[in-house]
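Question (not urgent): is this output format expected?
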Amino acid sequence: MVTKITHLLLMASGLVLVGCGQGEVSFANDVQPIFNTHCIRCHAGAGEGAEASGYVMLDYDGVMSGTRYGPVVVPGSRMSSALYLVVAGETAPEIQMPPHTDESFAEGRGFKLSDDAVETIGLWIDQGAQDN
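Got this back:
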Protein backbone atom coordinates (compact mmCIF):
# COMPACT_ATOMS: atom_id res chain seq x y z
CA MET A 1 0.00 0.00 0.00
CA VAL A 2 2.81 2.42 0.93
CA THR A 3 4.57 1.61 -2.35
CA LYS A 4 1.42 2.43 -4.36
CA ILE A 5 0.98 5.75 -2.54
CA THR A 6 4.64 6.65 -3.05
CA HIS A 7 4.36 5.76 -6.73
CA LEU A 8 1.22 7.91 -7.12
CA LEU A 9 2.87 10.85 -5.39
CA LEU A 10 5.90 10.62 -7.65
CA MET A 11 3.70 10.48 -10.74
CA ALA A 12 1.66 13.45 -9.54
CA SER A 13 4.74 15.55 -8.86
CA GLY A 14 6.02 14.73 -12.35
CA LEU A 15 2.72 15.81 -13.87
CA VAL A 16 2.83 19.08 -11.97
CA LEU A 17 6.31 19.85 -13.32
CA VAL A 18 5.33 18.94 -16.87
CA GLY A 19 2.06 20.83 -16.56
CA CYS A 20 3.88 23.97 -15.46
CA GLY A 21 6.29 23.79 -18.38
CA GLN A 22 9.22 23.27 -16.03
CA GLY A 23 10.96 20.38 -17.75
CA GLU A 24 14.71 19.98 -17.57
CA VAL A 25 16.55 23.01 -18.89
CA SER A 26 19.61 22.28 -21.01
CA PHE A 27 22.61 24.55 -20.73
CA ALA A 28 23.72 23.86 -24.32
CA ASN A 29 20.28 24.07 -25.93
CA ASP A 30 18.45 26.61 -23.77
CA VAL A 31 20.84 28.77 -21.74
CA GLN A 32 24.00 29.23 -23.83
CA PRO A 33 21.97 30.51 -26.82
CA ILE A 34 20.60 33.29 -24.58
CA PHE A 35 24.14 34.20 -23.56
CA ASN A 36 25.33 34.03 -27.18
CA THR A 37 22.62 36.45 -28.27
CA HIS A 38 22.67 38.90 -25.37
CA CYS A 39 25.93 38.62 -23.41
CA ILE A 40 29.07 37.51 -25.23
CA ARG A 41 29.41 40.72 -27.21
CA CYS A 42 30.73 42.21 -23.96
CA HIS A 43 31.60 39.08 -21.97
CA ALA A 44 34.13 37.51 -24.34
CA GLY A 45 37.64 38.32 -25.52
CA ALA A 46 38.39 42.00 -25.04
CA GLY A 47 34.75 42.97 -24.47
CA GLU A 48 33.89 45.60 -21.89
CA GLY A 49 32.36 43.12 -19.44
CA ALA A 50 35.22 40.66 -19.75
CA GLU A 51 37.76 43.43 -19.21
CA ALA A 52 35.94 45.02 -16.26
CA SER A 53 34.99 41.87 -14.35
CA GLY A 54 36.93 39.00 -15.86
CA TYR A 55 33.60 37.28 -16.63
CA VAL A 56 33.69 35.36 -19.92
CA MET A 57 30.50 33.59 -20.97
CA LEU A 58 31.61 31.65 -24.05
CA ASP A 59 30.95 28.22 -22.52
CA TYR A 60 29.80 26.39 -19.40
CA ASP A 61 33.21 26.53 -17.70
CA GLY A 62 33.42 30.28 -18.23
CA VAL A 63 29.91 30.88 -16.91
CA MET A 64 30.55 28.77 -13.82
CA SER A 65 34.00 30.19 -13.09
CA GLY A 66 32.46 33.56 -12.33
CA THR A 67 34.18 36.92 -12.15
CA ARG A 68 37.51 37.90 -10.67
CA TYR A 69 35.46 38.72 -7.55
CA GLY A 70 33.97 35.24 -7.21
CA PRO A 71 31.29 32.87 -8.44
CA VAL A 72 28.04 34.26 -9.86
CA VAL A 73 26.05 31.01 -10.00
CA VAL A 74 24.99 29.09 -6.90
CA PRO A 75 23.63 25.79 -8.24
CA GLY A 76 20.15 25.14 -6.85
CA SER A 77 19.39 28.74 -5.87
CA ARG A 78 18.56 31.45 -8.38
CA MET A 79 18.03 33.99 -5.60
CA SER A 80 21.57 33.38 -4.30
CA SER A 81 23.06 33.72 -7.80
CA ALA A 82 24.34 37.12 -8.87
CA LEU A 83 23.91 36.10 -12.51
CA TYR A 84 20.17 35.61 -12.05
CA LEU A 85 19.74 38.75 -9.95
CA VAL A 86 21.37 41.04 -12.53
CA VAL A 87 19.43 39.64 -15.51
CA ALA A 88 16.14 39.56 -13.59
CA GLY A 89 16.41 43.23 -12.64
CA GLU A 90 16.65 42.39 -8.94
CA THR A 91 19.63 44.71 -8.44
CA ALA A 92 20.33 48.42 -8.67
CA PRO A 93 19.80 49.69 -12.23
CA GLU A 94 23.50 50.54 -12.51
CA ILE A 95 24.47 46.85 -12.58
CA GLN A 96 21.52 45.20 -14.33
CA MET A 97 22.49 43.11 -17.34
CA PRO A 98 22.45 43.45 -20.21
CA PRO A 99 22.99 47.16 -19.53
CA HIS A 100 19.80 48.85 -20.69
CA THR A 101 19.19 51.83 -18.40
CA ASP A 102 20.58 55.35 -18.46
CA GLU A 103 21.98 54.70 -14.98
CA SER A 104 24.12 51.75 -16.13
CA PHE A 105 27.82 51.85 -15.28
CA ALA A 106 28.62 50.01 -18.51
CA GLU A 107 29.17 52.01 -21.67
CA GLY A 108 27.67 49.40 -23.98
CA ARG A 109 23.90 49.01 -24.22
CA GLY A 110 21.68 46.04 -24.85
CA PHE A 111 18.09 45.15 -24.19
CA LYS A 112 16.47 43.74 -21.08
CA LEU A 113 16.04 39.99 -21.42
CA SER A 114 12.54 38.66 -22.06
CA ASP A 115 10.68 37.19 -19.09
CA ASP A 116 10.99 33.76 -20.76
CA ALA A 117 14.78 34.09 -21.07
CA VAL A 118 15.10 35.18 -17.42
CA GLU A 119 12.91 32.27 -16.31
CA THR A 120 14.97 29.81 -18.39
CA ILE A 121 18.16 30.98 -16.65
CA GLY A 122 16.44 30.81 -13.26
CA LEU A 123 15.15 27.28 -13.86
CA TRP A 124 18.55 26.12 -15.05
CA ILE A 125 20.14 27.45 -11.84
CA ASP A 126 17.35 25.99 -9.64
CA GLN A 127 17.81 22.62 -11.36
CA GLY A 128 21.47 22.58 -10.32
CA ALA A 129 23.15 24.57 -13.12
CA GLN A 130 24.18 21.37 -14.91
CA ASP A 131 26.48 21.14 -17.94
CA ASN A 132 23.86 19.42 -20.06
